[in-house]
Amino acid sequence: MRLLALLAAATALLPLVGVVIAALSGPGADIAARDVARYALTSAVLAALVALVTAVVGSVAAWLVVMHRFPGRGVFAWALALPLAAPAFALAYAYADLLDVAGPLRFWMRDALGFDLAIQMRSVPGAVLVLGCAFYPYVYLAMRAALVNQSVSAVEAARMLGASPARAVWRVAVPLARPALAAGVALAVMETLADYGAVQFLAVQTLTTGVVRAWSVYGSTASAAQFALPLMATAAVLLWLERWGRKGRGFETTGARWRPLPVTDLKGWRAALATGFCVLLLTVALILPMGWLLVSSIDVRPEWPRLIEAGRNTLLMGVTGAVVTVALATLLALGADKLPVTARVAGLGYATPGAVMAIGLLLPAGLVWSLIPGATTGLGAGVILLIYAYAARLMAAAVEPIEAGLAKVTPSMVRSARALGRSELGAAWAVRLPLARGALLTAGLIVLVDVLKELPATLILRPFNFDTLAVMASNYALDERLPQAGWPSLIIVGLALPGVIWLTRRVAASRPGSDA
Amino acid sequence: MTGEVLTVRGATRRYGGRMAVEDADLTLTPGRITALLGPSGCGKSTLLRQIAGLEPVDAGSIHLGDRLLSEPGRQVAPQDRGIGLLFQDYALFPHLSVLDNVTFGLRHLPRERRRKRALAELDRVHLADRAAAWPHQLSGGEQQRVALARALAREPGVILLDEPFSGLDRHLRGEVRDHLLTVLRTQGAAVLVVTHDAEDALMMADDLALMDGGRILQTGTPEACYRAPVSAVAAELLGEIQVLEATVVDGVAETAFGPVQAHGVPEGLASVLVRSDQLTPAAEGVEARVTGVRFLGAEHQVSVARGAARARFRATGSPPTVGEVITVRLTVGREAVLAAKR
Amino acid sequence: MIRRPNPSLFVALAALVVAACGQQGEATDAAPAAGEGGEVNLYTARHYDADLRLYEMFEEQTGIRINRIEGNADQLIARMEAEGDNSPADVFVTADAGAMWRAQNAGLLQSTSSETLNSRIPANLRAPGGEWYGFSRRARVVAYDSTKVQPEEVDTYEELASPRFRGRLCVRSGDNVYNLSLVGALIEAWGPEKTQQWVEGVVANLARTPEGGDRDQIRAIAAGVCEVALTNSYYYIRLANGDDAGDREVTETVKLAFPSLDGQGSHVNISGGGVAANAPNRDNAVRLLEFLSSPEAQTLVSQYNNEFPASPDVAAPAPVDAYADFTAHPMSVAVYGQNQAQAQSMISAAGWR
């Protein structure tokens, strides 16, 4: 077991080792310290603002939906997570086009209303809008799970001790949900740091820009990798923070009886406000940008043969990538109690910018390519390499839910399986995995949705004649042909939607004793 | 201490089509401890939550003195009722220290007084030295005492305890119970203890209420409820009971083990509820054959048969032997005879 | 509720893997078998639809199947380096002379002594040693608001840095390859000192922090944000002849000027390709390059992508012909790459984001 877990961890770590080796391999390019400081500052500001936006928006949305009854609540409960299906780069395309100074909205405003909003989409605030929309669902889902599973009696106890409902929420419910908030925000920030497509398109110069510039202008993978090291360090801190969030000081309530959550009925303007908030959020994060992509693509005849082939490739990679990643992540999670540090470090790939990961992935890929002569040309080998890349990059996203699922299996259950004659592996197979089945599916879907949107690793490692939808969208967007980029982006959303919907339903059903 | 009586009149709570609490009457008197005893799922916790203000009443009312606390469509918020509640899982706030847990409810006091008050309260439950600890560092019994201190610190006129001993080890219970009783008695509040354990209820209660299927079956002193149950179900709640079939003729219920005074009971079939100490060997009585003897430590449980009828009793001293014929007598009175329902 | 351990899930997952692999195998089998001419492996940083049509034409004409990987030029270079001697790459194609130079510099290209190529492609549009050839040209020129700016005011590159356009210039970000190659060319023509001053002048003239692509700069002129902008020629031509009525309207006021560098012509960049150092299908690779240099291929690229043909003999088709009579600077495009790092340092130092 320990060996298998180590193997899985090594899989995930190899690209990171590759980055470190690349960083040490040569002198850095002559990049002015001033620029580096500026990139780092932009990255930090962007991450902080996205953290703030996602924390507020995600928490408020979760709090409204879980604790209140208002028109549309049933739909919003799952619909508010749907922006997870939309790639950040697609949001960036849509908003940059929609809100450009020469875009339709502002032309119309100048003509019809006689004034102009000074909105700069290609700016840090613009990137915050796009990334906030794309990543708030992480906070929303985490907070919703926490609120759904909260200990009602803690809030009731506060009420019995004289606290008003507002004070009970502020002093008790909010602090108790803090770990979930930290976990959700950590995910959002890691995604922000790892983002490549959106910030690149919005010309926000983050450390990722530094990586790309070092690589493409100075041709120095070494200095590109050096840029990556602080990012990886940040990722490590965030992962640790997220762990802290989960474990906490025994925050898990034990032995509580579960009763239905007390849900407040909202009436009149409060209900309108709640519904309005959810509608606005959904509009800004999904309907408006995706609608605009659809509108601007509608005149373009989609190239169905290419789209279908790319769609098939995308789906194939998504499903296979999910299965392999979940399998590896499961090994890692099963061994996590014995190898806690290894399991943590293996998650670093998640927060490493795609452009950096691409550098790191070339190390194991280069090994394969130079050792196996046919590997560079064969479609099979190429696909395997790509799936490996997904596994390495998305391991953390899969390990987390699986670990949480395995935690529900008490040691005594495993011990009784051992006492009934099962080996350690056998017990895992017969008891721990079946009980964590839901968590495995959740992990698989998270990976699937992420793979559908994945860009940098796919770009550099894919085999011949192998397009995915994200690659097609990116190619068109780089060529400034947004209408053409719309179709593949929209198909990605379409493919990811069912998975996201299923994921959100699971959260709702996760309360012990819930019938759903 | 307000010293006011809390009165529940016809309290009802429906969940969909199911009646969780139906037409419940209950009175809590200052300085007295009332135990609400019933099996799990009988609605006793729901009734407690209605009193606390955490559940509305669908019918009926709850008053504290003259003040209306609950009626359908209207209720005073939990924080404004002046009622303390000790939760079954204690519901300590895991993110606050022990001291901060206790001061949580003392917002109306200035900071320094708050602290003093909380420490005094912790001292009363012998936990002043753990004030700086976190809840998860405490044992189950200590957690309960913190929760008690937290609830009592506000000096509520009514204190509700939801299954206070369910989380504790058997051997701890007696000690904790005695301590709890002492603390509650000094408080002088009206106390309601909700429990499914007959021994806990009998040990603590000044007044007892028996509940099953959402209804209050019987209220009264523990003694009265024990000796004069209103039904087999009510009787069963307080301990093992034997039901003997009887026929009432001329104010006397004839059972297989002898007659019982049944003045005023309608003629015809009836049941006689007999506890195991209410059938005893005696010089005078009816003859029964011993069918089994079990050693129970201080006493023996003896099973006897008379024709098709069977009964058990507890015998002290040297037990009879199996197969022996002995003379037994019923020591129950009129209150144990229930007319058969039609 | 604890469910009975159910292996079906795992069986299902395993089945998916098997199915996926199976499908993969089929895909390989089902792919059109390499024609009688064999195959050629293309690493390309171009991703235009016109290219796909070109590949189809090549396959039809020669029976050689093209396998392609598209990607960012530098990632493709990194991949070729990682693949090392085993690299299957036959042909490397990019849309920037600087990237071609970097691939050559990394030892990833070999020289081709094809008479056809040498005769078709002018010497300044290919590597001196024949490591790569340019097949189409794009000029980096000026779009201007014809209601506020006279064409004479933008007929040299120097004028973009003059105080005349203080706060009136739009340009995309400084690390874009097209800007880097332009500045690289200026360094070659003017030397570092004057170029540095020019870069600083451009930064001083910026109407806004650089954002968006070239097309966005043109549209920004129409929106009144600025009066002049640097753009690649084909973006403008595409706007002027596109499907979008709003875009066509933009080009009614915004016009295109071809400034001259030292009186010798406008700065041009190339899309080009070269044969990979370890090309397993070297002959096919040369045939592909020769095909790309053919008049019909150049015409097709020009038609679909609105670039200018590289050969002086190939007439530009509509709608590009309307713009094709400009003078291109005869400087060798090979120098752009050599000067790019220096260009980037100047651009960074001047604060051109």
Largest interface: A-C, 78 and 76 residues
Low-pLDDT sequence parts of chain B: none
Order of helices and strands of chain C: HEHEHEHEHEEHHHEHHEEHHEH
Under the CATH scheme, which architecture of the largest domain in chain C would be assigned?
3-Layer(aba) Sandwich
Share of helical residues of chain C: 40-55%
CATH architecture of the largest domain in chain B: 3-Layer(aba) Sandwich
Biggest sheet statistics of chain C: 10 strands, mixed
Instruction: Using the coordinates above, name the CATH class of the largest domain in chain C.
Output: Alpha Beta
Class from secondary-structure proportions of chain C:
alpha/beta
Radius of gyration of chain B: 24 Å
Q: What is the number of E strands of chain B? A: 20
Lateral strand order in the biggest sheet of chain B: 7-8-9-3-10-11
Order of helices and strands of chain B: EEEHEEEEHHHEHEHEEHHEEEEEEEEE
Termini separation of chain B (Å)?
A: 49 Å
Q: CATH topology of the largest domain in chain B, anyone?
A: Rossmann fold
Mean pLDDT of chain C: 86
Number of strands of chain C: 10
Residues in helix, % of chain B: 10-25%
Provide the β-strand percentage band of chain B.
35-45%
Per CATH, the superfamily of the largest domain in chain C is Periplasmic binding protein-like II
Describe this structure in words.
Chain A has helices at 2-24, 33-67, 73-79, 88-98, 104-113, 124-148, 152-160, 165-194, 197-201, 207-216, 221-247, 268-297, 304-334, 340-345, 354-371, 379-407, 411-419, 424-435, 437-453, 456-461, 469-478, 482-508, and strands spanning 68-69, 264-265. With 516 residues, chain A is mainly α. Chain A has a single domain (2-249, 262-508), classed as MetI-like (MetI-like fold), CATH 1.10.3720. A two-stranded parallel sheet of chain A has the order 1-2. In chain A, α1 crosses α16 (379-407), α2 packs antiparallel against α3 (73-79) and α4 (88-98) packs across α12 (268-297). The two termini of chain A are 35 Å apart. By secondary structure, chain B is an alpha+beta fold. Chain B has 2 domains: 6-237, P-loop containing nucleotide triphosphate hydrolases (Rossmann fold, 3-Layer(aba) Sandwich); 242-339, Beta Barrel (OB fold (Dihydrolipoamide Acetyltransferase, E2P)). In chain B, 23% of the residues lie in helices and 38% in strands. In chain B, β5 and β6 form a beta hairpin. Chain C contains 13 helices and 10 strands. Chain C folds into 2 domains: 39-137 and 268-323, D-Maltodextrin-Binding Protein, domain 2 (3-Layer(aba) Sandwich), CATH 3.40.190; 139-267 and 335-350, 3-Layer(aba) Sandwich (D-Maltodextrin-Binding Protein, domain 2), CATH 3.40.190. In chain C, α2 runs antiparallel to α12 (295-305), α4 packs across α13 (334-350) and α6 crosses α7. In chain C, α2 (49-62) links the parallel β1 (39-44) and β2. By secondary structure, chain C is an alpha/beta fold. The radius of gyration of chain C is 23 Å and the shape is globular. Helices cover 44% and strands 15% of the residues of chain C. In chain C, strands 1, 2, 3, 4, 5, 6, 7, 8, 9 and 10 form a 10-stranded mixed beta sheet that branches. Chain C starts with 7 loop residues before the first helix and ends with a helix.
